[in-house]
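Course exercise 7: structure representation. Students receive a sequence record and must write out the corresponding structure in token form. The form below is the worked example handed out in class, using Sulfur carrier protein (64 residues). Read each field label carefully; the graders check that inputs and outputs are placed in the correct fields and that the protein name is recorded exactly as given.

STUDENT ID: A-19
EXERCISE PROTEIN: Sulfur carrier protein
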Amino acid sequence: MKIRLPSGKTEDIDLGPLTVEELLRELDIAQGEVLVSRDGEIIPEDTILNIDDNIRIMQVVFGG
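STUDENT ANSWER:
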């Protein structure tokens, strides 16, 4: 699957099927700090990802 990381870097990862939660754990990314989208739609952490998916991981910014 193609994954666009918060840094803007794109990686091809040969994993799947796995959940968003498992992917973030594999990439050592804290789940509470990012949003994950597939084909432009935000998806929950229990969504099953497949090897042919295009995934984008976006950093969440907190502030006040």
